[in-house]
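Collaborator request, handled under Task 6.
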Amino acid sequence: MTAEPWPTEIRLFDNGHNLRISFDDGASFTTSAELLRVRSPSAEVQGHSPADQKTVGGKRNVAIIAVAPVGNYAIRLDFDDLHKTGIYTWRYLRELGETAEASFAAYLHELAAKGLDRDRPGEA
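Structure tokens returned to the collaborator:
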């Protein structure tokens, strides 16, 4: 069994609108704060089952204002909309980085299907 890639650098840039995470295997991903917020692993967003998952609109301009370590396996991201309950494991950050384009496209589809958009707050 091989060890999972370990983060070597986590950096906010663009005034907190993007987060870059680099791993010890050479992979590096830049993920928007918007995608990290709307795909937060928190129960508030994910619910307690797939049927409970929320689609959150109005987060186009959300920014990350703090990054806090959680043990040696994750970080907590604090957003300027006061959301700060998601625990982002290294594995989840890697997965989101690898699938960012498809995940964002799916998010846009979910917004349209539920009559929401990236600029007006709301959730369904």
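The cover message to the collaborator said: "The mean pLDDT is 92. The chain has one domain: 7-123. Please let us know whether this matches your experimental observations."
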